[in-house]
Amino acid sequence: MSTTDVIAILALGVSIVAAVGTVGAWRAARHSHHAAAILSRIEEERQHAALTPSFRCQLAVTEDGASALLRLHLDGPAGLEPRGPIEVTVSIRNDSSWRGHASPVAGGPLPEEVRATVWGPWRFSADGCDDRGRAIAPQELLVGEWTQYALTPTMPPTWMTIGTERWRQDYADAPVRLRVTARSGSSVWNVPLEIAASPAAA
Question: What is the mean pLDDT of residues 25-46?
Answer without folding.
Answer: 74
